[in-house]
Write a structure and sequence with these properties.
The complex is a heterodimer of chains A (308) and B (243).
Chain A (H helix, E strand, L loop, with lengths): L3 E7 L5 E3 L19 H10 L8 E5 L4 E4 L3 E9 L3 E2 L2 E2 L5 E4 L4 E3 L5 E9 L29 E3 L26 E5 L8 H9 L1 E4 L7 E5 L10 E6 L4 E4 L6 E3 L6 E10 L4 H5 L6 E6 L2 H18 L2
Parallel strand pairs in A: 12-19
Antiparallel strand pairs in A: 1-4, 1-11, 2-3, 3-10, 4-9, 5-8, 5-10, 6-7, 6-9, 12-18, 13-14, 13-19, 14-17, 15-18, 16-17, 16-18
Chain B lengths: L5 E5 L6 H17 L4 E6 L3 E6 L6 H13 L10 E9 L7 H7 L4 H8 L3 E7 L6 E4 L14 E4 L3 E5 L2 E4 L4 E3 L2 E5 L20 E6 L2 H13 L6 E3 L2 H8 L1
Parallel strand pairs in B: 4-12
Antiparallel strand pairs in B: 1-3, 2-3, 4-11, 4-13, 5-6, 5-12, 7-10, 8-9, 8-11
The chains are: A alpha+beta (308), B alpha+beta (243).
């Protein structure tokens, strides 16, 4: 590959290419995919001078080993998986100039699960249905494997040494409650059921993946069964099947589902769910649409302010 | 209200053709209006859920707009629904459970094929997996429970029956449906210009083909020369005359 910028030396665990996902195809049953942590993806891109929605490499827990075939600028944002450049530790949420021949490696996961490696110019693998996001199950791209060569656009070498202000760096161990908007199937649960959901804490299980976070805790009581006529689900929608154990739907969810939906996680808190490791206890708090959208607007404004 | 970026429009209480028509009118309108800030929508059996960008349009403004569209729904002329013909080679190696379905319903295999291919099926919604149509309208005469133990891999294109539902697997996947045949057509092909063949609100009609025809159609699909059979839907009256 002529314009290859990166050679995959070791693939890591389920490393993929992700952008903002495939918008507009859910009406045909298509999965959106896209980054699990949209905030980290966008910041990583902005720090290397890319458009905020450019495609980047998504690493999960065990990062890949990547060799650079050209000079470029990179940034690693999201989870701290102990990144090193030629064995020298580098910071997350900061852009670095990288020289041809240098190697990016990862070590122990310190905080969070999903890290985004943005490369100046963006990853330019082919677009399918308007997006470069890997959706391996649907035959679109695949998880990285050893020897893969990744193309990128032309780098902007001036964009190195930029970092996110420390006050803005998310803390994934933040014990604050995950905020939700209740519904649309609130009525399918007993008063006690809703109460349980908002009072108890739930543990993230090891059965969690890009499709969703499966939680374990006090069972949530239904009025009369957990099945609904199949209906749309959104990012962060919390389904409760008959066993009363909630599932938070994430990037690779199907567009529709047949289980009762107790609530939807607000956009502001989606990255925190995605970055939570199995074993972590989380609790939920109901907020109004107004509160959720104020936070949404604030976050979007922040992203705009970061663009130089 | 549905999360902080969603608006859910309820157009009916149960699965019906009438509700589906309303849904189709609304989605046709959404497509035409291209409301600034509406990113996409997901039609389902009784609802349309709209995903929007709150930076571009407020919840209240969007609700208002949808109310206006809803008020005018009955006056909207929507293009006639289309019937897409799906050729199916029934039985044999492609339909290992045709025998089961016939035995369960005390019919001959030919009768099962005639019933299954003698009806236009409404595509209520798309989902479950990319390109999978939720079809309505299968005759109860051929309804058959799922297999007791699901198969590990069902090839793409397999046509199956599960209870009183019928469907086509768009990709290879595990499943417990009674497989009665297979189509060479690709309901999901991410590399194609039309990655997904079917649309909610349209109809599907299965046409029985021989193994030789199946091969021929398969070859022309691979070459890109296959012409899809699409007819306007003429409704139930014509269906009666057809019989």
């Amino acid at each position: 590959m002529e314009n290859a910028t990166i050679e995959v030396m070791k693939p890591g665990l389920s490393t993929s290419i992700q952008d903002l996902g495939r918008t507009g195809y859910q009406q045909y049953g298509m999965v959106v995919a896209g980054a699990m942590d949209m905030f980290a993806l966008q910041v990583a891109n902005i720090l290397v001078g890319n458009k905020h929605g450019a495609a980047a490499i998504e690493a999960v827990l065990m990062g890949p080993e990547l060799r650079f075939l050209k000079d470029t600028v990179i940034a690693v944002c999201g989870a701290n998986l102990s990144p090193t450049l030629d064995d020298e530790p580098i910071q997350t949420w900061k852009s670095y100039r990288v020289q041809k021949g240098q190697t990016l490696k990862f070590g122990k996961p310190i905080d969070g699960a999903y890290a985004y490696i943005a490369v100046s110019g963006g990853i330019t693998t082919p677009k399918v249905m308007g997006s470069r996001s890997t959706y391996a199950k649907g035959g679109i791209g695949n998880y990285l494997s050893k020897g893969d060569l990744l193309p990128t656009g032309d780098p902007n070498m001036k964009r190195s040494g930029r970092s996110l202000h420390p006050d803005l760096i998310p803390n994934y161990n933040n014990p604050d409650k995950i905020r939700v908007i209740l519904g649309p199937d609130e009525d399918a649960f007993t008063k006690e059921g809703i109460h349980t959901f908002l009072r108890e804490s739930y543990k993230i299980t090891t059965q969690s993946d890009r499709k969703g976070a499966r939680l374990e805790g006090a069972p949530i009581e239904h009025v009369d069964g957990a099945d609904i006529i199949s209906d749309a689900v959104f990012p962060g929608t919390i389904q409760v099947p008959a066993n009363g154990q909630p599932i938070v739907l994430l990037a690779d969810r199907q567009p529709t589902g047949g289980y009762t939906r107790i609530a939807t996680v607000i956009t502001e808190d989606l990255p925190r769910i995605a970055q939570s490791l199995p074993g972590k206890e989380i609790a939920f708090e109901a907020v109004s649409l107004h509160v959720a959208q104020e936070l949404f607007h604030r976050r979007q404004k922040l992203l705009r302010l970061l663009i130089p | 209200m549905y999360g902080d970026r969603g608006l859910r429009v309820v157009l009916g209480e149960s699965i019906s053709k009438e509700t589906n028509e309303k849904i189709r009118s609304l989605t046709t309108q959404l497509e035409k209006e291209r409301i600034d800030g509406v990113l996409e929508w997901i039609p389902a059996y009784t609802t349309v859920s709209i995903f929007y960008n709150p930076e571009k349009i407020s919840f209240d403004a969007l609700s208002q707009k949808i109310h206006e569209l809803y008020e005018n729904l009955s006056q909207i002329e929507i293009p006639p629904a289309e019937v897409v013909t799906i050729p199916v080679c029934y039985g044999g190696k492609y339909g290992p459970d045709l025998e089961n379905v016939a035995a369960h319903n005390k019919l001959t295999e030919e009768e099962v094929i005639r019933i299954h291919s003698g009806n236009d099926y409404l595509i209520y919604m798309m989902g479950f997996s990319p390109g999978f149509p939720y079809l309505g309208g299968m005759s109860d005469k051929i309804a058959t429970p799922r297999l007791e133990s699901p198969r590990k891999k069902i090839p793409a294109g397999s046509v199956g029956i599960a209870g009183s539902q019928t469907g086509v697997y768009p990709s290879d996947s595990p499943g417990g449906w009674q497989i009665i045949g297979r189509t060479p057509m690709k309901l999901y092909d991410p590399k194609s210009d039309t990655p997904i063949l079917l649309r909610a609100g349209n109809y599907v009609r299965f046409r029985s083909v021989t193994e030789a025809e199946y091969e021929e159609i398969y070859q022309s699909i691979m070459k890109g020369t296959y012409e899809l059979e699409i007819k306007p839907y003429r409704g139930l009256q014509n269906e009666a005359t057809y019989r």
